[in-house]
Design brief:
Chain lengths: 181, 168
Amino acid sequence: MRHFSPRRFALLYSLLGMLVGAGMTPMAFAASPLLHKRAPEFVRTDLNRKRMDLKTYRGKVVLLNFWATWCAPCQIEMPSFVAWQKKYGPRGLQVIGISMDDDPASARDLYRKLKLNYPVAMGDEKLGQLYGGIFGLPETFLIDRHGRVSAEYQGETDLKSIETQLQTLLPNHRKIGPHYR
Amino acid sequence: MNRRLMMRSGMTAFFVSFAFQFAQAQFPASGTSAATQAGSALSIPQAQLIQPEVLNQLLRATGTEKPLVLQVGSHVLYAEAHIPGSEYAGPGSQQAGLEALKSRMTSVPRKDFIVIYCGCCPWNHCPNIAPAFTKLQEMGFTNVKVLYLADNFGTNWVGKGYPVERGR
């Protein structure tokens, strides 16, 4: 018969208590209604006055990022999106930014300041509702090459987890492991 | 005896850990002196905060004093969804938004019950709520509560199933 020491028992219950307590905090996430569904299509004019039509990016992996100039976490992650566009763009990544600012002038200023190398268009409540309700920022969607929402990231997110996921969506993704090269 | 000791120590550890994790999520952690400087949501005293579930119950109750609820963040996000009956009076991070708030509140009695909220982004990053709270204090309002939205309006209000309205 296996014996449990009081210490091991207490550790187990501590872990259980932490998990249950944490699960009841506001950090618990609800499943996105758009996950694995076709990403809602939209057409906008970007800040450079070019037409932005989501369906023209079919065949590419799209990172669709909702942000705003007043959103500090947004500005922290956007330089990474610039780096990924440069690094993964040749492999089929397209980053698209949607500014939820009220004023396009402020969005344009930040676009220039951060030297964004991807198209940015102005969003509004209509586009926000199309994407299930953008009620807080940043919010980022990964859309696969078939136009389906592969992942959704709400609020501050570990950028490494986004990068790992987008790598798996790119063509010619190679698993590195004991049986592959 | 040993089994009893095991159960007691285990249950004690469980409840202490649970209480600690749960309590941490209900209120913002007190920050460093840099984090609590003016302009940061962390500078708002905890006594002035109101939890979403409390405000929701208050707004649904009959026969109780209802606060004037103001959203002081993004107008686009307000238009997508806002607390029913709330008005837009922002953004608190911009001078024009503070002027709009001041203009709206000029004729409001200073003892009226006011609740302001934003929910644009995680609490400790919100640029709107603290300036708006400070403005109301400067105007002499003595009964102001701030809705504590730890993550954002979507997670802490909409995601909880509380009622919303749409439109500008």
